[in-house]
Design goal:
The protein is an all-beta fold. The protein is built from no helices and eleven strands. The strands form two sheets. Strands 2, 4, 5, 6, 9, 10 and 11 form a seven-stranded mixed β-sheet that branches. The protein has a four-stranded antiparallel β-sheet with strand order 1-3-8-7, with no helix packed on it.
Length: about 120
């Protein structure tokens, strides 16, 4: 199993970014992909999930505090899941990880290496 994130970078307050999570090694349509973030100074255990999408039906879940600013969607032809982030705030600065779940209600079993997102004030 492999998950590879890309698309992170430096963006201004109010800007947008799209993260990608390219996956391989499992049946894409049978699993769920979660997006997590690890805020500066936090340990791995402090990673918080911001979204999750079930690839079999496209149903997605989000944390309420995101206020609708993030959207996750998948492209089964590319085995890739995306996280579209808009109206970014400095407090969104974090390392973002995608992770493989059997289903969104389960804990993830595999993680990508992460991609840094920095939002300037």
């Amino acid at each position: 199993v492999q998950l590879v994130e890309s698309g992170g970078g430096l963006v201004e307050h109010g800007g947008s970014l799209r993260l990608s999570c390219e996956t391989s090694g499992f049946r894409f349509g049978d699993r769920a992909i979660g997006w997590f973030r690890q805020l500066p100074g936090k340990e791995r255990e402090g990673r918080k999930r911001v979204s999750c999408i079930q690839n079999n039906d496209g149903k997605a879940f989000y944390k309420d505090y995101l206020e609708g600013r993030f959207t996750t969607f998948s492209d089964s032809s590319k085995n890739t899941v995306y996280l579209q982030m808009s109206r970014l705030k400095p407090e969104d600065t974090a390392v973002y990880y995608c992770a493989l779940h059997i289903a969104c209600e389960n804990t993830p079993g595999y993680w990508g290496q992460g991609t840094q997102v920095t939002v300037s004030s």
